[in-house]
């Protein structure tokens, strides 16, 4: 998942979309964001919703950024965070009125699906960024069946199902499950692109991924899902992606 491999259909004046499999997108995302930050000469970076497991907590990899802050709604989760960095408790779905035009880069991983007010979140991102800054996000997308189920299922039942699919995760202490809303989290449809543009962003890159591992306990279903993913990578349908990584730029 590198900029040199960027290919696909035009999605905005500057941006394009590419499709890949979920493993490549998931495993490559952390390095992708870091390399993007280095290429852009990022000095001030905020990881949104980083909570207990901030990516920027690794000073060996992120030491080039002099100002690193993790912003999360939960002080309890932030208290679990490891690394030499600043933390800030804030509700990203309410207006943030300070530090406007401050950051070079904002990014998140597996946060956007949990936001009850996606427009306000992305408006906050736009306001916090300096002109020319980047807002980068990795999230699961509707209308993949497990995520539709997660959206519609009561939270208690969803936690019980997750414990079956991913045994032991909820007992780890730093891998909790949070309610999911899936607002503004779809594939690169024209409507989805217009939403980001309506806040003021330019959509520079949209990496859509097919596939997931939620059927791994049912081997026949898992095999069908893998075959479907291979087909869709070659014959992509934007609305059927499973995950996405988007790169949004605040115009200079």
From TrEMBL:
One of its GO terms (biological process) is methylation. The keyword Transit peptide does not apply. The keyword Transferase applies. Keywords: Methyltransferase, Transferase. Transmembrane segments: none annotated. InterPro entries: Methyltransf_11 (IPR013216), SAM-dependent_MTases_sf (IPR029063). It holds the Pfam family Methyltransf_11. This is Class I SAM-dependent methyltransferase. It comes from Mycobacterium deserti.
